[in-house]
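User: Could you check the structure of this?
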Amino acid sequence: MKKTIAILPGDGVGPEVISCAVEVLKKIGQKFNHQFKFLEGIIGHQAILKTGDPLPKKTLEVVEKSDAVLFGAIGDPYYDQNPHLKVRPEQGLLKLRKTLGLFANLRPIKVFPSLVDNSPLKKEIVEEVDFIVVRELIGGIYFGKKGSEEDFAFDTATYTKEEILRVSRLAFELARKRRKKITLVDKANVLETSRLWRKTVQELAKNYPDVSLEMMYVDNAAMQIIKKPKEFDVILTENMFGDILTDEASVITGSIGLLPSASIGEKSALYEPIHGSYPKAAGKNIANPVGAILSAAMMLDFSFSLKKEAQAIEKAVEKAISAGVGTYDINKENPVSTSQLTQKIIEFI
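Assistant: Sure, the predicted structure tokens are below.
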């Protein structure tokens, strides 16, 4: 198989962890006889420094030539201290999602058996936790009409039935391949958009009689993810709720550095670790590469239908972690570097 992959390392530790994922993909290519071509582009703070634009035209051209996108991280402390800046790194990623029509974000939350004790939650609560959040990604309050004056500001949340249907279909199809349960998370007791979500998803559920559907208010969901995370299989929710709940859920695993994600559209897909740019660790060879490496595995599975190859990466990651090979966030007593963990994963592949 021949595939072209757009590499967008981005900011902070993004370049380091993405280079690790690329090395793993090269190993997979050798082992399974695939040819992966890598095209690199700039985005975020790095792109602003060089072009003044967080998503330059040349980067979009690279993406358009590719079969999938592997993305690192975005953001820089400079912008955190300057809320009045009009051009910001995050605008590049939001624009990329919108341009590619990446309407669904998938974030698996799975606890490695050897890292159960790393979780801040009790062992009996987190053992065998394995659920996935399907978050609508290009609608809602993040993309609605907004504005501000000196002492007044507004952000508008809007959704159409079709926007809800396309992400919900994906969630139901995913549930069919898992434990056949969906939890719709909303705030239908308060929000009109949530009431539209609930009505639309209930109608769609009739086409999936083999999948059970429960509905839960977002405040309750935030509690249950901590109290009873094993009860969840597929969580389906809108953009802002999904953004918050996935960061909350990431804590269950013991380190945000372990978690991958996929952003899916009709024709394109983007894969990225969820840990962000982590600027304090940039250039120090200490960041956990597993989130980026598992994002590459998701790309092989979802975009290229290379399930065996994806499983080879997942098993190698699990073997390395089970052998006690981990960066500081998961092995404080005897940590290894970013590159050392990556080489061990490649060995196991």
